[in-house]
Amino acid sequence: MAREQFLHWPDNGTDSMRHSTGNFISRLGDRQLPHYGQIVLLALLLMAALETRHITNEFSRDQRAQANREQEIHLATVMAFLPAPVRHSERTIAVFAYAFYVSAALWALQLGIPWTPWGAAVAFTGVMAVHFENMNWLTHATHAENMLLILYAMWYTAYGREIREALRAGRFWTTPLYPRWVFTAGVAYLCIFYTNAGLNKLIVSGPSWANGTPLQLWAAAMGNARSFAGSLIVSHRAVAAGLQIVTLVAETGAVLAIVFPRLRVLFGLALIAFHLGSMRLFGYRFEANAVILALLLFPLDRWITQSAVRKCERTRSGRSIPLDAGPFGRALRARFDVFGGRGEAETKSPDRMGVA
Hints:
67% helix, disordered N terminus, 356 residues, mainly alpha, disordered C terminus, 19 helices, 2 domains
């Protein structure tokens, strides 16, 4: 396999879609070093853990109690099948939360594959779903990280045997294990997610959603109207309209970034700016969305993989991971031996690492 192909998928693996759908589909199994995929995975686990901590704190418990007192909660999520006493119990959320913490920690250490990835993904889904079963409103702030956790659990299931073998041999970081289809599916999901949000605005409210008045009303009623940005929006409808138009265009047009990789940074910056503004003005929890946008729409996959290959070339004869260490010891050392030494077999040069 040519070194340039190993360094990165050509054109992020999507330009070929426009020329040959068959060729694009056949290349979805191409792989690269796992460094970028591991950074995304650990970021997802960390953000999910922070969100779980927020959901289980006293403030969130009080919110759920108040919502249940105010009105009957209707079935709204995938956990709606649970009996009402279970669905409305704080213990149910606590059980899902602890299950997530344990599964996520083991997944981060590469233990219990592929069961721990699914344990973490399902448990996080349970925390979010049961929380919203007890609220009188919904938010899409956790949808992206939830679906991406499921996608990455699918990766660990499809390549579980090869990942375990690479970990045992001490060559996880020098083996191309991150497949193109995981990256492409993540980008596609994220872009469709935002396009769906933009189209919903147009379908429900029409183009008048972006005339500035809604944002002015939201800022005055629910936002920090005394801040510089809040006062500017409330006082100048043209400013409010401009911000809403940019948001609507960025959301609705995000799907274009699937097949036009050069647009990803532009859409990513616009959507991150939208989230930062929402966080600043309204206090919404969009930190995870902003991080995910940067990880998937900025060319970090290319930069990280190129850097990893250069590092691996310089350390290819480095320290090996003792094979007589127990499963936990091997997992821990493999997790932190990012630029890999040699395991039971001689580590291949990055120039020679092929795709299975």
